[in-house]
Amino acid sequence: MSHKVLMVCLGNICRSPLAHGILESKVHHSIFVDSAGTAGYHIGELPDKRSIAVAKNHGIDISKQRCRQFTKNDFTTFDTIYVMDQSNFDNVIKLAPNEKSKQKVKLILNEIHPNKNLEVPDPYYGGTSGFEEVFNMLDKACEVIAAKMK
Ligand code: 4NP
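^ thats the input. predicted complex w/ 4-nitrophenyl phosphate below
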């Protein structure tokens, strides 16, 4: 059975759409990748223009994505749930129905810095350089994730 991976941040407009697009670009299409936000502020919206632009600069189109909110059902659908920061982690864990669900939730940067619990900074209120920095972090993490799925 093919693996299903969900990328989660707060708004699902800046970080998780990038993680979603980057991982999708590195894996076989039999692996299902999606993203969601723990908050409901931006439901139905496109990713942030700055995320669309930085992805496009790296040859990845994320403009077809639409924002959705994380739900408890995602624990049933997905095998692995990658979160960007500790606050996302806490918000997702709060909705977990059981221990098996909790074990699906991982901080994405632990893929490249095991057990360090580092966070992908929220670039929403900063400038364009923050989006480039986030892209580079996620690109490295997704390279490791994709390699495990080969
Ligand atoms: P994201 O960034 O969690 O990386 O999508 C944010 C986007 C929007 C908001 C917060 C974070 N907001 O408060 O609207």
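The chain has one domain: 4-148.
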